[in-house]
Amino acid sequence: MTIDSKITESKMFEDFSTPTFQQWREAAEKTLKGAKFEENLVTDTYERIRLQPLYRHEEIEKYPYLSTLPGDFPYLRGTDEIGNQHEPWKVCQELACSDPEEFNKAARNDLEKGQTMLHLVVDEKRSNDHLNQEKVNSRGVSIASLQDFHKAFQNINLEEVPIYIEPGISGYPFFATFMAYIIQQNQRSNRVRGCIGIDPIGQLVQKGDLPYPINQAYKKMAEITRWSMKHSPELKTIVVQTHGYHNAGGNAVQELAFAMATGLEYLRTMEKHHISIDDAAQRIAFSFSIGSNFFMEIAKFRAARMLWSRIVKELGGNDTSQKMFIHARTSAWTKTIHDPYVNILRGTIEAFGGIMGGVNSLHVSPFDEAFGPPNEFSRRIARNTQLILENEANLSKVTDPAGGSWYIETLTYTLAEKAWELFQQIEKIGGMYHSLIEGLPQEQVSGTAEERMNHIKSRKEKIVGTNIYPNLDENQLGSHVNIEQVETSVKNEAPNPVTHLNSNVEFVLLQDSLKTFTEDSSMENAIKAAKAGVTIDELLQAMCLTTSMNPSIRPFSFHRAAEPFESLRMHAEKYKLKFGHLPEVFVANFGPVSNYKHHADFVTEFLKVGGFYVSQHAEYQSISEALHAFQSSKSKIVVILCRDEKFPEVVPSLAKSMKQCNSDVTILLAGYPPTDDRELYMKEGVDDFIHSKINYYEKLVTLQIKGGIRECTN
């Protein structure tokens, strides 16, 4: 027998015994040297899920549906039998250009270079109401009338290119004007695919109120859906989006529960308007943000399909109706202004998680998204991120790549169970709308957001380039952008609702059409009015002529995770503009830095996070030498650095001497000595201590105030 045949016939590892879990745990605990297993190896998440360091097959045997295949209920492993191999996810990059011509140019370019679904971002604040031009901004395409659709979609065949649009509060008149364009272009409405999605609850979350009663919003949602069923059967007309909860700091459990509750409310509402569960469910798209917790996000999308299929099945929906369509975008919460190219890596990881979770269409945010509208370069990098994941990483060649992972399967079911519990709480209140009126989602999300911010400020949660590893020498990416100039240019382009007409005949036709729509706001009359030149805003105003009470809720607070630390850097940069240099901190190093290098590195990075420049790196051998250097520096803040055993010898004398030279100086000691020693050092002049347990943000704010930075930059 040859060596090769022996290797072929032998069984790998047959000579090794399989250790038990208990044996592994005992071995792991030995490496902890007395520290507790639960405290050091078990990770708590914002979802109140305890992540174990090791998962085993035995733990997932209790879960149902693990033996199901892709395309089988409850669609844990995807809604298609062969996943992305049948049709890859749609590359659905947002095109947030400021005007229709710019959008058209970008759309045609990007469709030629890999984009497969046209995603128009509507500037909701931009209306053509010439009396309210302060509403205009540059965060989307300015679509005001039928003319703008002609400009935006020139030379784009919407029978061939699927679309994705969330038109916001103007959904009904926007949809009507879009369909007027399709009809005028002699394009077949039954060939239009994708989504023009109405989401009144999502708008309520984003804005805090609606310009019309919720029942009217639901009525118009039903009218759009019914019209689409007849004329555009492949077009989804309802969106359930959870970006508001995500961007307010919510967790995956909350996103899932609120999505399910909203979706269920829309199904029930459509049924009240005589639209069946099957017809309604097949016209709903879900839109999620993808966070940075990679495995949690994979589990979130898998759990979402399970939960939604269960809800639709309970309502009597058929197999097709139980299948969930998921659009996703990489998180706005996680993106930063400082060290912005790191956002490319964040977007890649988030996109990877979304694809692994089985999303149907995807937007990867450009790395400069936090600054404003992206440019062609950043759009290309974001788009190519998806194309590389599809064509080079071959993620479209495998179905449910996360399936079978003991960790991800356990996380999926745990997440689904917790989301279902919260979903049931919402149902007891009376559904998603009533829960928002009462404030349950706001309370839930604000609690999670507060916990997140506490972790960020204490650096328990790290943001590379912002609260850890900052780069003070970077060139600010957005320094050249004049937002006020952009907004002014867009305002100046706003059309007057009367001057765009060519004759008195057209004006009379417009007025008659608007009057007819005001009396009977049917979809047919809305389309006729749009053809006659009535603007989207005028149609919306006609819809809002009601004496009923419009809904309002306690608003959510939307932020990015990095904002507190970005504020620190902003103050430091303003200081630099005024004085020509960053605020300086004098670091008094006693003895060879190599003896306490980890302390020195910690202090330097801590100060840089706040925008401070560390002015001294010398090693001092005496109090007088350090004192002389301090007097020359004119710094208002001092950090004393030395080995812990040198504290009694160095700290009291140096602190006292420095205070005698300058009573206003703030003196910090790197370290956290015992209580008695701290009290002694503070009596001699030490103001505070720098160590790993502090709230970094609050400490740096205090230093900026004491250093006069805030005073001169406010």
From TrEMBL:
Co-factor(s): adenosylcob(III)alamin
Superkingdom to which the source organism belongs: Bacteria
InterPro entries per the UniProt record, alphabetical: Cbl-dep_enz_cat (IPR016176), Cobalamin-bd_sf (IPR036724), MeMalonylCoA_mutase_a/b_cat (IPR006099), MMCoA_mutase_a_cat (IPR006098)
Presence of keyword Cytoplasm: no
Pfam families, A to Z: MM_CoA_mutase (PF01642)
Protein name: Methylmalonyl-CoA mutase
A GO term from the CC aspect: cytoplasm
Keywords: Cobalamin, Cobalt, Isomerase
Repeat among keywords: no
Gene Ontology MF term list: cobalamin binding; metal ion binding; methylmalonyl-CoA mutase activity
GO BP field: propionate metabolic process, methylmalonyl pathway
Family, per entry: Belongs to the methylmalonyl-CoA mutase family.
Gene3D superfamilies with a match to the protein in the record: Cobalamin-binding domain, Methylmalonyl-CoA mutase
UniProt lineage: Bacteria, Bacillati, Bacillota, Bacilli, Bacillales
UniProt xrefs under NCBIfam families: acid_CoA_mut_N
Residues annotated as domain Methylmalonyl-CoA mutase alpha/beta chain catalytic: 45-543
